[in-house]
Amino acid sequence: MFRTDLLKDKRILITGGGTGLGKGMAQRFLELGATVYICGRREEVLRATAAELFASGTIHAFPCDVRSLNAVDAMIDAIWSAGPLDVLVNNAAGNFIARSEELSPGAWNSVINIVLMGTLNCTMACGRRWLKSSHPGTVLSISATYAPVGSAYVVPSAVSKAGVEALTRSLAIEWGNRGIRMNAIAPGPIPTQGAFSRVLPRPELETLAVDRNPLHRFGTVEELANLAAFLVSDGSGYINGEVIRMDGGEFLQGAGEFSNLGRVLTDEDWESLRPRKPSAR
Ligand code: HXC
Ligand code: NAP
To answer: Which of 49, 75, 142 to mutate to test the pocket of ligand 2 (most atoms within 8 A of CB)?
Structure first.
């Protein structure tokens, strides 16, 4: 789908790059010539991923909790000591389904601090360095389709992802004339152990999610990674401040008043709804 040198000479940090979508993006970016940095809280997971992807290119792993400004700054300093990053992918997240009224303050904090504050910490750490040295940079954040409208039962994530999208659109304008592009991807459900074990933890919930989708399937890690590769490449240089939805049309399916008719009405029903005779007009 892409030239194999599409991301040659790009230095890319993917937060949460040890698993799931982050790992998939790491693999694709390596195949396209990038030097990749991954971070996460679990050192053994990062090590295993780096060892697995090593054959595809240059990959470095940094244990780092993005909730900690000090830890983020130390990681970014360490990366910068070998040269500036060109791309930051804010992918790390925390989420689970729960009834909001039952959430403890610690539960709210845990998700908001990873998703919103983690994204803010990493974006500001890179952004300040890029601005100071007039080095062009690109930030790609992974949001979720419910960010603009909210969603029941994942409210800490919804408020955080909404903040991430506001940050994306705001800084796209504030920093755009100084060489920094800000975009986001809002994926629909893509099977990963981390996400599905927490937000679709039962088979019937997976079935419900597939049934809502016009394509009647989940997205794939490869589809997400390809879109991400395009958005962080120089070929997409005029895309700034956008949130690209990648959900097979699920979001629109939910919005259209009559979208569900296809599930209920049979061919016979449609036939019976047609006028019996051509109109006399
Ligand atoms: C209610 C919960 C809970 C749950 C944790 N808590 N899980 N409350 N229901 N299921 C509460 C705990 O009791 C605790 O409250 C507080 O949250 C912090 O929990 P810890 O386990 O100490 O937190 P921590 O180790 O920081 O882990 C963070 C986490 C965890 C978010 C809770 O799930 C995690 O590590 N997630 C990372 C990966 C992830 O979530 N991936 C999925 C992304 S999918 P107290 O009161 O004791 O402090 C996604 C989009 C999906 O974002 C969209 C699909 C379409
Ligand atoms: P995942 O595998 O659970 O990925 C989350 C990653 O974030 C993990 O590698 C985790 O590693 C890391 N992380 C969590 N807290 C962190 C912290 N405090 N500091 C640093 N790293 C942290 O789930 P995923 O499905 O790939 O999700 C990736 C992104 O896609 C998330 O932003 C998610 O919201 C978004 N998304 C996913 C889906 C989907 O269906 N899969 C749909 C919409 C949006 P550690 O635990 O080792 O820290």
So the answer is: 142
For residue 219 and ligand 2, the question of a CB distance below 6 A is answered with no
pLDDT tens sequence across 67-117: 999 999 999 999 999 999 999 999 999 999 999 999 999 999 999 999 999
Record the tokens describing residue 222, joined without a space: 């490869």
Q: Which range of residues forms the domain containing residue 174?
A: 11-280
Task: Assess whether the C-beta atom of 198 lies below 6 angstroms from ligand 1.
Answer: yes
Three-state secondary structure along 128-168?
HHHHHHCCCEEEEEECCCCCCCCCCCCHHHHHHHHHHHHHH
**pLDDT given at position 278:** 67
Per-residue model confidence (pLDDT) at position 107: 98
Is 146 an annotated catalytic residue? yes
Instruction: Find out whether 80 and 3 touch, Cβ atoms under 8 Å.
Output: no
We report the CATH number of the domain holding residue 214 as 3.40.50.720
Domain contains 2: no
Look at residue 259 and tell me if it is in a domain. Answer: yes
Cβ pair 56, 38 in contact under 8 A:
no
CA distance 95 to 108: 10
- 199 C-beta closer than 6 A to ligand 2: no
Is the pLDDT score of 280 beyond 80? no
Sign of CA dihedral 104, 106, 110, 116: positive
> What would the pLDDT profile of 38-53 be if each residue is shown by its tens digit?
999 999 999 999 999 9
Which of 91, 160, 198 most suits a substitution to test ligand 2, by most atoms within 8 Å of the C-beta? Answer: 91
In a domain, 129, yes or no: yes
Number of domains in the chain: 1
Residue 140 in any domain: the answer is yes
- Residue 40 Cβ inside 6 Å of ligand 2? The answer reads yes
Tens of pLDDT, residue by residue over 245-269, are 999 999 999 999 999 998 899 999 9
